[in-house]
Specification:
Layout (H helix, E strand, L loop, with lengths): L1 E27 L9 E17 L2 E15 L7 E14 L8 E17 L2 E27 L4 E28 L9 E17 L2 E15 L7 E15 L8 E17 L5 E30 L3 E29 L6 E18 L3 E16 L6 E15 L8 E17 L2 E29 L3 H6 L3 E5 L6 H8 L3 H7 L12 E5 L5
Antiparallel strand pairs: 1-6, 2-3, 3-4, 5-6, 7-12, 8-9, 9-10, 11-12, 13-18, 14-15, 15-16, 17-18, 19-20
């Protein structure tokens, strides 16, 4: 007697934790730079240099890279200083060991810069690190039995998710951006913002389709005395594919995207003039794809001429509970009164912070905020560049009815669009569109037969059973249960009682004829 097995390949999170910490620095303005009268804007990015799992913790080493744009009373052109603050942190997790597959996602929760005096700037930041220890595992699932002796067996239908693909990849975006003819040549880039928007994925056979937009803003220095600073803004659509062996069009795709490299360099055009920007963006992709698998799980076995004994174990499976998408529109009013009011909005940027997630009756509720930054040119020609930030709180429920408090899910939240328009000379309306993706799983626990053996039927048990009987069906009875009780094949019961299907009702009378010894 041999059990027929089928392997189901799955992944799970074995451990997860998150921490927050602060980084602070008082930065002296380099001697070669002029005095500062005002911080115009700032931006920062967290880079992780080492992720090292050891016993019961993960050691993380990285740095905060920052840029600060400031105004000087001595110069018409805004000034930039850059720097970095290194850090080393530990994220604790019981059971972690060296060699584990650990991922850590870093997010800059807050960056605040302010003048201490004309030669010193205070930098304060809050950084969040989210750690996960994942692993792949296999369940050897019993789907049948091969035996020369007459036996009866039943199956339980089960739809599960199998992990088909788990890999990392990159996607490069390269574009050449030409300045419009009405804008002067570039001497130096002063400030730049590069943001990805409207990012979409599509599973295909053997590859993954990708499309989106790159939003580019540049504040640059010119050689013109009257207009020493100019700005340029564009939106560049992109599309392409990522080769992905084993990918299927009907697969369930779960993508995590970060951007580790965003660069903009000045290039000469065909006439040798500095009027071209070389754009390069690298998207770091974590790709997971799941496939639905229909299982016929061997659930029970009994013998007709011999006793069958089985050994069972508990097995864990996943089933797709929900795969939903949603959008939420947000807006707020923003005061832009620095510099005497707005002459022109130059660019709008934003950042999403998720504070809380919770499973509710209707699905997964998420709350957080979108920080919108409006960078504008004011009417004050002596101090023309300013920025203002405003947080827009949000609460959204991704629909997935029936989830349990301990259900496993992955929620991605992207800033799809952000812009602003003036309501009057000193007030703007900031707008944002959030795009949310939810992938939720039901955790299933099923008994799996892992061993099977036969032995001689107990004679006392068989002698106690009548050779022929009329059985009255009770509540909860099935043909399977009755056949197992009397060691009679289900097909024989159906044949003796002229039954075309398996349906029986309490009170029905069935003719049972013992088959042992036949």
């Amino acid at each position: 007697m041999e059990l027929l097995k089928r392997n189901i390949h799955m992944d799970r999170v074995r451990n997860q934790n998150e921490i927050q910490f602060t980084l602070e620095e008082d930065r002296n303005i380099p001697d070669a730079k002029p005095d500062a009268s005002m911080v115009i804007s700032d931006m920062g990015e967290v880079t992780l240099e080492e992720i090292r799992p050891v016993t019961d913790q993960v050691n993380v080493r990285g740095k905060l890279q920052y840029q600060i744009l400031y105004a000087s009373p001595e110069e018409k052109v805004p000034q930039v200083i850059t720097g970095e603050i290194p850090f080393e942190e530990q994220i604790h997790g019981e059971g972690i060991k060296a060699g584990d597959a650990v991922t850590v996602h870093a997010q800059l929760q807050d960056l605040t810069t302010s003048l201490i005096n004309s030669r010193k700037i205070s930098i304060q930041s809050i950084i969040q690190l989210k750690m996960q220890v994942g692993e792949l595992y296999d369940e050897d699932t019993t789907v049948g039995v091969q035996c020369e002796e007459p036996i009866e067996y039943s199956h339980t239908g089960l739809e599960v998710l199998q992990t088909a693909i788990q890999k990392k990849d990159i996607f490069r975006i390269r574009e050449e951006l030409m300045l419009p003819h009405e804008l002067p040549n570039v001497v130096a880039i002063l400030w730049k913002k590069i943001r990805i928007g409207k990012l979409e994925w599509k599973p295909m056979d053997g590859k993954i389709g990708i499309q989106g937009e790159v939003h580019v803003f540049v504040l640059y220095e010119t050689s013109e005395e009257e207009n020493p600073v100019q700005s340029y803004q564009t939106v560049e659509p992109f599309a392409g594919t990522i080769e992905c062996q084993g990918c299927r069009e009907d697969g369930i795709l779960d993508m995590l995207c970060d951007s580790s490299h965003r660069e903009l360099e000045i290039h000469a055009d065909n006439d040798g003039e500095e009027r071209c920007f070389g754009l390069e963006v690298v998207l770091d992709l974590t790709i997971q794809m799941y496939e639905r698998e229909s299982l016929e799980l061997l659930s029970d076995v009994y013998g007709v001429t011999r006793q069958v004994k089985t050994k069972e174990r508990s097995a864990a499976f996943r089933k797709l509970a929900a795969q939903t998408q949603g959008r939420q529109k947000l807006n707020t009013h923003v005061k832009c009164n620095a510099g005497g009011g707005v002459r022109k909005i130059l660019t709008v940027d934003g950042n999403v912070l998720m504070d809380h997630q919770e499973i509710k009756d209707q699905g997964v509720m998420v709350s957080g905020s979108v920080e919108v930054e409006i960078f504008y040119q004011s009417v004050d020609r002596e101090m023309p560049y300013h920025s203002v930030r405003e947080s827009i709180p949000f609460t959204y429920t991704c629909e997935a009815a029936g989830l349990k408090p301990g259900s496993v899910y992955r929620l991605r939240c992207h800033l799809e669009e952000v812009d602003a328009s003036m309501l009057d000379s000193e007030e703007a309306e900031g707008r944002a569109v959030l795009f949310l993706e939810l992938l939720a799983f039901d955790e299933l626990e099923e008994q799996v037969i892992e061993e099977i053996a036969t032995e001689e039927l107990d004679q006392d048990t068989m002698n106690a059973l009548p050779g022929i009987a009329i059985y009255v069906v009770q509540n909860g009875d099935t043909l399977w249960k009755i056949g197992k009780r009397y060691f009679v094949p289900v097909a024989s019961i159906k044949e003796m009682n002229n039954l075309s299907g398996n349906e029986i009702r309490p009170g029905d009378k069935l003719l049972i004829m013992k088959s042992y010894g036949n």
